[in-house]
Amino acid sequence: MNTLIETIKYFLFISVELIVLFMLISMIVELILMYIPAEKIQKKLSGKGIIGNILGAVFGSLTPFCACSTIPMTVGLLNAGVPFGSTMSFLISSPLLNPIIIGMLAVMVGIKAAVIYFIVAFAAAVIFGYFLEKTGGIKYVKNLKPKPMGCGCDSETVAAEPKKIPFKEKLRQAFRGAWGSMKPILGYMFIGVGIGAVIYGYLPEDFVVKVAGPDNPFAIPVAAIVGVPLYIRAETAIPIGLALMGKGMSIGAVIALIIGGAGMAIPEMSMLAGIFKRKMVVMIVAVIFLTAVIAGYIFNMFY
Prior knowledge:
The protein has about 300 residues and is mainly α.
């Protein structure tokens, strides 16, 4: 009975904390995007060389898109003539540097974890975007516009023009936008918290330590492999990861699972196949996998 009570307490506490965090961070991002015209963003992303990759990664870090929602924006950038490398840096950073992920890591794991995660994911987006351009990846772009596909999350849009409306109205719009973004993922969030609560209350610690503890050198690549096809949203993965960490799973394996799940998904692979030829899709999957593994081992070095 005590274990059941603790499990329920964990579920309620983490659920409330995640909902508050999601709404607060989403509202801040919604407000920021109200002041950024899409045309200005596309113009800024047209920087040449590594500067364009850095700007692409910065833009990706400001957009609260899930993996599938990133695709329409990627198509728009390519159609607008934004350099291929900048677009690839955006494609990699947008789901990985989702402000929701950064905020949740900062509050629930610590500022240090959020900073390390941001630096590693940002560097990976810049470097791999630059690499994909220099290796001639643009020749793998198809001349076909992919058909819209649903993936269980809304496709947010960047404001076309700054809105000249009272700040109170902007706050109301930001709240409605944040709530609209959260509604489709509430089910995923509660599932993740529920799984995490069960793990927290009932999964034996010895088993977790043996399979995915810091002494298992293969725990990180295995977690990355599991995460890539699993398509777990960050809102689902983070509460599960926290519970697993509490049972002895290494933080590196948790980070690898989050990056694999947030950065790539089977629905996104299908959508990418409508934009790129098979070789480029494979390269993008490899980039996400390498990012997950590298980040995992770096986290284990610092923790």
